[in-house]
Structures are given as structure tokens and as C-alpha cells.
Design brief:
heterodimer; A: 524 residues; alpha/beta; two-stranded antiparallel ribbon; 44% helix; B: 330 residues; alpha+beta; five-stranded antiparallel beta sheet; 9 strands; 45% helix
């Protein structure tokens, strides 16, 4: 029999504001007391409902004690353990477990999440819970779950042509397909996706990446929905290697961390009473399709301020630049070397002039794609929304970066950074490494005082205001300013990724302004 | 030995035995202090008699079985958190047995809302120092026959709560009082609509009384002088103030007391007094440059602040941890 208390969602707000609202005497307080009024579904804001879902999962269903996404409101107590001085901080702000939070943000943003980890750590249970949160009965979620296996065919995944049509059709257009019902769901789960054969992975790629399925010239458009994929081993240990394009379409990767054995009594209770958490999800935390639509729109409406955006731009610009790959600036990228099939280290041997330890670009084998950047923006907004904020904070961005870039930013383990003894664990701790990268990037950003002094940002702002109405004199002044800036940099700066991006921007601005000036002069 | 449960509630328990047992198990798991035996006693001594009384109060017009079933379910369900909170005390139990039968049509129409409102209201009054829950129940019992909807019950209950000692509700209750019918107003406030204007102008006037004796404890009263009442005390004797407070009005005209560390809204009138922590740091209005009130100055030494309120001066002195209300002579 299920434990009834599991279906309880506390009435207390999950995230009381740090500055409480001014309380005054209110006659309505008379009817506040130990007996709770029935909750009206619409009365709960969607971010509060999402937090209620999070806390129910983390405290009742998955029971995760790993609060690795830390927020601090003021001073926090910190301790160091062992010879390695492993830091342990007790966050003063509300903090979260990535294993539960990231799938939930994926659910809210309708993106694609890969959950990795050893057997029995709650990967499939977590994905199933997301299906139940979307309003599907547990049985339907389980039935619709795709289990990867080495014999899985495209027909297993997508559906099969109707036999009668195969016999009578005069053209492929006449063959109707019996599409699998899971394609129409708002939560789609593929268990152990790295056991799917390569050919079937390609079909999955089309559905997952482009949102439609294709068979016999028939197209099935899938409605917007979240994807959850699981893998026991994401480092190539599956039955089949995961094709790169499919891996690239996955938005976040999150690791299912181990169960804390102090919570064995909770497991004992489940064993004795014979229930599973996904079977007793409280109705209060189940989202209707309309709520999911509204929540998605609300997430997109969260503001990303320029100061946060600039830090992301600065961070992202560190990685693509690779000076030895070309003689022309535009082609000096890691992608140029990759396309040529040449090892970066063979080209980089003769490179001089830059501090290879401080240059963050040397730590990676690739740069960031546009898709990765868009995903970062969406998850940062989603985390801010989840925390009840209307504006993304730098910490929101910092916390999503490692999970979004987990499989997208490939470390160069031969880089000098990883040879430092203290950085040894970062060879395997991808989350810690990327978070460190972001912190180092922000420290460099602060060192350069770019929040207050960023001439390229000023020129871009000026340009984005529009060229219409700019006089010839003003245009000439702008060109001179660009040339002066490049002149200063050419004598005082070495080429780093961030400088590379800025030089290209200045060249772009110079070109646009030059064209405008030519047009002005042609007009007479 | 507790008596056996009989009647419609016994039937309900019998029909829903598994679900009821499950709810008790859930309550015990959710709250270690939940006392199952106390709950059992409450079912016998309060819930079952309340069901009987509510059903019987309709006379020959018996309630339909579904409505009684719904009533039993609500009373059972609501009594769980009350027992868990240790709030199923004498006053709430009395309200269930004495007030709910009078509200029979409303209870049967919307049992969850009515029972929740009555229970929470009595609990709030019970927990407020100086408030008088039994007086509230008596007033609501008088008003019961004149309440046509749950909305009217809600408004009348709020006005009656002010009269029963919840001075904090004064502003809101005066607004609500204007909407009450004459019988509702008489039951809740002992007042007619014509009295409301005077009540608004004088915090210390009681309708139907020539006396202006407040329900707030008096600190000093001497012949020929209006009594002085004190609100608040030193933190060491369960008051809110660490140091003798000072008073001022905030931008919204509310009386605010501060001990230098925290601010509190203070209310006091003929019916009671209240202090609520002003957690949002209300902005205080600039104090008017007024000389000390002569009627107060000679009676209370070492004044530190003073604010004029309708019918009284609210003052503080360095010799007391209370905010003192000195009534003006009529």
C-alpha cells in the first residue's frame, strides 16, 4: 500500500523572499490557522509549483543529498577535510541537487537531457517522474519508454507501415504509417540510448533534433516536448558508439549521484509498503499542457541583463581561436585544424608568445557552437525562473554552464593546465573543470575591468543604434576610432581568443561603416 | 471510559474504515507528536456529537445522506490537523458543538470552508493574548440565523473578532461593518450602523456604553483622570521590546514602535490590543514638531515620544517598556 504522506506537498512557500513583505494588521488573518484551506490549482504560481515538484522529488522520490548547485546569501560556513583540504561549504542560500534540478529544468524548457550513471541510481525513475509530472499515468509513461537494445530497428522506434497499404500502394505516398504513440507525448524517454544501433540512432537524431519522424516519404511532426535519455556509461562503453550529431543535440548531461546509505529507512519503507515514488506523485505538482505552455513562455520572458551576457560572450570567445591553424585571421580556429585532420599539438608546437597556462583556450580541443550558446541562454533563464527571479544572475549562468557544456567542450588533457598536480582530478571531473574554466574566465573579465571599460562594447552599442542619420564626419570618426584601437592592440596585446573575437568585430564594424560611408559619398 | 460512537458518524467510519485508518497513519508519519489516542477521544467526545447536533438541528427536515457523508468526511479530516497541532482544545471543541449546529445550512452546503473558517478563527483568537474566543462564538451564534451565505459568515466573523479583542483588525473590520445587515452588525458589534462613525473617531468608545473602559489592562487610573493602558513589555517577560520603545506613524498612518533594533505595528482600542512585527521595515513619517501633550506630561515623566491617535495619546517613556495610551478627556 503506498505511503500516503508521500502524496503530501507542504503548504509553506518553497522559497520565501529574503526580504519579507511588510506585514501589517490584516483582518483576513483571522481565518489562517492549523486547518489548511483547499488549494486552488491556479493560485500557485508556476515557478512555485516547479519548486514544489523539485522538493517533492528530492525529499520523497529520488532522495538526493547532493546539494552541488550552491547559492550563498551572505557568509557561509566552510570547512576543509583531509590532506587535500577538500572544501565543504554550508550554503547560506537555497541550494539544489543537479541530478534532480537539471531534468526538471529540461522538463520546463522542453529540451533534451542525458542522465548518466551506474545502474540503480534512479536515472530511469527520474525520467519516469518527469513523464508523470506532465500528466501521464505511470503505466503510460512506462509503456511509452523506449528501451535501447542492439536489435532495435527504425520500425521499433518510429512505427511501421500498415501491411494492407504495403500490398495495395501504387506509390510510397500511399503507404500509411502506424506511428508509435510515444512520438506524440510531451515527455519522451529513451532508456540506455547508447545500446541503440547506429542506423536507428540516425532516425532518433531526426526526431530528437528536428522534431519530426520520416518513413516511406511520410512525415510525422512531433509536438514540443522534453527528452530524457539515459546511459550507464557515456564514455563509449555502450554497445554502439553514439554518433556525434546525436550527442551534439543533447542539451544537458547530468550525472546520477550515489544513494546516501543513511536514508536506508526510506527504502525499507518502500519495500515494506510495496510502492514506487512515481506511483504516488501528488496531484498538486502535475502540470497541465496549458501550464507547460505558459511556463515555457514565462521562462523565455526572463531577462538576461547585458552584464551577464557580456561574461558569457567573454567566456565563449576563449575557445575557438587557434593561431597556428592558418595564416589568415578568420581561419585561425580549431575547426580549421579539425577539418584538416591534423592534431592540434603538431600545429601548436611552434606557437609562442602566450601564457599557455593562463590561456583558457589551450584547455579545450574545440570551441562552442551556436546551439550550445542558445542552450546556455535558455537553461540560465530556466534556473532564474525556477528560483523565482525575473532576471538571470551570474550565478544562474555559472551553475548551468558545466551541465550544458559537459559533452560539448572537449578537454585537451595534454594541456599544461592539467599537468599541474592540483588539477589532476579535473581530468575526469568534467563538471568541476568547466566550472573552474568559467570562474577563471570571470576573474580575467574582472581583471580587465570590462564591466566599466569595454571600448568594443561601446562601439557595438553605437552601431546597434543604427547607421541611419549618421553623418559623414561621424562615420569617419568611428572608422578612426576602430583603427586607433586596433593600432593600440597590435603593439600591446598578444592574440588570445577574446582578442581574436574583438578584432573580428572591429573589422566587421569597420567594413559596415566603410560601406555606409561609401554610400553616403555616392549620394553626394 | 469513552463512550461508543453511534449515529451517522459511526456509519461513516464503518463505511470508510480503511481510508480513515490510512489518514491517521499519514498524520502520525507527518507529525511525530500526533497523539492517536487523543484523536480517538476527540472523535468520540467532539466530532460524533457535532455531527449529531448538526444533523438534528434541522428538525424534521433531515439532511440527505450524501451531505451528511460529506460533513462527516470534512469533520474527520479537519480534526486531524487540529489534533496534530494540539489545537483541538476546549474553545474549538465548544465552537463545533455550539456554533456549527446553528450554521447548519451553510455547514451542509460547504462543510470544508465553514468548518475550516470557524476552527481557524477560534484558534487565532485563542492564541492572541487578551482576545476572547468564547465571546466570538457567542456573537456568531447570535448572528447565525441572519447569515445567508459563507461570505456573510466570513465578514461577520471578522467584525465580531475585532469586538472580541482583535484590535489589530479595526481598520478592516470598520470597512466590513458597513456592509453588514442590522442584525448581523448588532450581533457582531452591539452596534447600529449609525454608531460606526463615532467608533471611527474614537478608539476608546464602546457602542451601547457610556463608559469608556477599555479591555486593555490599565496601568494607572486615578479619580478625575483617564486611565492609562499599556501595550507591550520587556522581552524578558514575554514582551517584544529589548529597550524602552519610541513611537511614530508610518507613511500609511499606522502606529509603529521601535526599540532601536526592530519595528512593530501597535494597535489598541476599547476592545483589545495587538503588536505585530513589522518585518518590512515600514518607512516612518517625519515627526511633527509638536510640544508634549500637557494632559500627559504631568502624569508620565521622562516622555521620549508621543503620537496623537483618535481619542488618545500614544506615548513612550524611558521608564517603561510599554507603549502607553492615555485617553483624552471627552
Amino acid at each position: 500500500m503506498p505511503a500516503p504522506e508521500m502524496s503530501h506537498v507542504p503548504e509553506a512557500p518553497t522559497l520565501p523572499p529574503s526580504v519579507p513583505a511588510a506585514r501589517a494588521f490584516d483582518v483576513a488573518d483571522l481565518y489562517q490557522g492549523p486547518v489548511a484551506e483547499p488549494v486552488v490549482a491556479d493560485a500557485v504560481p508556476l515557478d512555485e509549483k516547479l519548486r514544489q515538484a523539485y522538493f517533492w522529488i528530492v525529499n520523497q522520490a529520488i532522495i538526493s543529498t547532493h546539494y552541488d548547485i550552491e547559492y550563498h546569501n551572505g557568509p557561509s560556513a566552510a570547512f576543509a577535510f583531509g590532506d587535500s583540504k577538500t572544501p565543504v561549504s554550508l550554503p547560506s542560500g537555497q541550494s539544489y541537487s543537479s541530478f534532480v534540478l537539471l531534468p526538471l529544468l529540461t522538463f520546463a524548457t522542453r529540451r533534451r537531457c542525458l542522465i548518466v550513471g551506474g545502474p540503480g541510481r534512479g536515472k530511469t525513475a527520474s525520467a519516469t517522474l518527469m513523464g508523470v509530472l506532465a500528466g501521464y499515468p505511470v503505466r503510460e509513461v512506462r509503456r511509452s519508454m523506449q528501451h535501447g537494445h542492439p536489435q532495435m530497428t527504425t520500425a521499433d522506434l518510429l512505427g511501421a507501415p500498415l501491411p494492407a497499404d504495403l500490398m495495395t500502394a501504387k506509390s510510397a505516398d500511399d503507404i500509411r504509417i502506424g506511428w508509435r504513440s510515444w512520438l506524440s507525448m510531451r515527455v519522451r524517454i529513451v532508456d540506455e540510448y547508447n545500446r541503440i544501433p547506429t542506423r536507428t540512432q540516425s532516425a532518433l537524431l531526426t526526431v530528437l533534433g528536428d522534431g519530426y519522424a520520416e518513413m516511406f516519404d511520410q512525415i510525422y511532426e512531433c509536438p514540443p516536448g522534453a527528452w530524457f535519455l539515459t546511459a550507464n556509461d557515456d564514455a563509449g562503453g555502450g554497445t554502439y558508439p553514439v554518433i556525434e550529431a546525436l550527442r551534439d543535440r543533447i542539451d544537458v548531461v547530468v550525472q546520477a549521484l550515489s544513494f546516501n546509505n543513511r536514508f536506508l529507512p526510506e527504502l525499507l519503507d518502500r519495500v515494506e509498503q510495496g510502492y514506487r515514488p512515481e506511483e504516488v506523485v501528488p496531484a498538486q505538482i502535475v502540470f497541465t499542457p496549458d501550464e507547460l505552455d505558459r511556463m515555457h513562455a514565462a521562462i523565455l520572458a526572463v531577462e538576461l541583463p547585458e552584464l551577464v551576457r557580456r561574461r558569457l560572450e567573454f567566456f565563449a570567445s576563449q575557445f575557438e581561436f587557434f593561431e597556428p591553424a592558418a595564416v589568415q585571421l578568420e581561419y585561425m580556429t580549431k575547426d580549421t585544424a579539425r577539418l584538416a585532420g591534423v592534431d592540434l599539438h603538431l600545429l601548436g608546437a611552434g606557437e609562442t608568445g602566450r601564457d599557455r597556462l593562463a590561456d583558457l583556450g589551450t584547455q579545450t580541443r574545440n570551441g562552442l557552437s551556436v546551439r550550445a550558446l542558445q542552450t546556455l541562454l535558455i537553461y540560465a533563464k530556466a534556473l532564474a525562473f525556477f528560483r523565482g527571479q525575473t532576471v538571470v544572475g551570474i550565478e544562474d549562468l555559472r551553475h548551468v554552464v558545466p551541465f550544458v557544456l559537459h559533452d560539448k567542450l572537449l578537454p585537451d588533457l595534454d594541456a599544461p593546465f592539467f599537468e599541474v598536480p592540483a588539477h589532476e582530478p579535473l581530468r575526469v571531473d568534467r563538471v568541476g573543470w568547466i566550472r573552474r574554466l568559467f570562474d577563471l574566465s570571470c576573474a580575467d573579465y574582472d581583471r580587465q575591468d570590462l564591466d566599466r571599460s569595454d571600448p568594443v562594447a561601446d562601439l557595438l552599442r553605437q552601431f546597434r543604434a543604427g547607421l541611419a542619420g549618421v553623418t559623414e564626419t561621424e562615420a569617419t570618426t568611428r572608422l578612426e576610432a576602430i583603427e586607433r584601437l586596433l593600432g593600440e592592440w597590435s603593439t600591446a596585446r598578444k592574440l588570445y581568443g577574446t582578442t581574436y573575437d574583438d578584432i573580428l568585430v572591429l573589422k566587421y564594424l569597420h567594413q559596415r561603416t566603410t560601406n555606409y560611408l561609401a554610400w553616403l559619398r555616392w549620394q553626394g | 471510559m469513552a463512550g461508543l460512537i453511534a449515529g451517522p458518524f459511526a456509519t461513516y467510519l464503518s463505511d470508510h474504515r480503511d481510508a480513515c485508518n490510512q489518514m491517521v497513519i499519514a498524520a502520525r508519519r507527518a507529525n511525530q507528536r500526533f497523539d492517536a489516542s487523543a484523536f480517538g477521544s476527540a472523535l468520540t467526545s467532539v466530532v460524533a456529537p457535532a455531527v449529531d447536533a448538526i444533523v438534528a438541528s434541522g428538525g424534521t427536515a433531515g439532511a440527505d445522506a450524501a451531505a451528511v457523508d460529506r460533513l462527516c468526511a470534512v469533520l474527520y479530516d479537519v480534526s486531524l490537523p487540529l489534533v496534530a497541532a494540539g489545537a483541538f482544545n476546549g474553545c474549538i471543541a465548544e465552537a463545533w458543538s455550539s456554533l456549527l449546529p446553528g450554521l447548519r445550512p451553510l455547514v451542509l452546503a460547504d462543510p470544508r470552508r465553514v468548518v475550516t473558517m470557524v476552527s481557524n478563527a477560534v484558534d487565532t483568537l485563542t492564541r492572541t493574548p487578551g482576545a476572547r474566543p468564547r465571546e466570538w462564538c457567542a456573537r456568531m451564534a447570535m448572528a447565525a440565523a441572519h447569515l445567508g451565505s459563507v461570505g456573510e459568515l466570513e465578514s461577520t466573523g471578522q467584525v465580531a473578532a475585532w469586538r472580541a479583542g482583535m484590535a489589530a483588525y479595526r481598520t478592516g473590520a470598520l470597512v466590513l461593518a458597513e456592509r453588514l445587515t442590522a442584525p448581523q452588525l448588532a450581533a457582531a458589534l452591539d452596534a447600529a450602523s449609525a454608531d460606526l462613525e463615532r467608533m471611527r473617531a474614537d478608539l476608546w468608545w464602546t457602542p451601547g456604553s457610556t463608559e469608556r473602559v477599555p479591555n486593555v489592562p490599565e496601568i494607572a487610573s486615578a479619580a478625575g483622570h483617564a486611565p492609562i493602558v499599556g501595550v507591550g513589555a520587556f522581552v524578558g517577560v514575554d514582551g517584544p521590546f529589548r529597550r524602552p520603545p519610541v513611537v511614530a506613524l508610518d507613511d500609511d498612518g499606522r502606529l509603529v514602535a521601535s526599540d532601536g533594533e526592530e519595528r512593530w505595528f501597535v494597535a489598541a482600542d476599547a476592545f483589545g490590543s495587538a503588536i505585530v512585527r513589522a518585518s518590512g521595515s515600514p518607512k516612518l513619517a517625519r515627526p511633527a514638531k509638536r510640544s508634549r501633550p500637557a494632559s500627559v506630561h504631568h502624569r508620565i515623566p521622562e516622555l521620549t515620544s508621543w503620537v496623537h491617535t483618535p481619542g488618545a495619546w500614544a506615548v513612550t517613556t524611558s521608564l517603561s517598556h510599554a507603549v502607553l495610551f492615555v485617553r483624552e478627556t471627552p
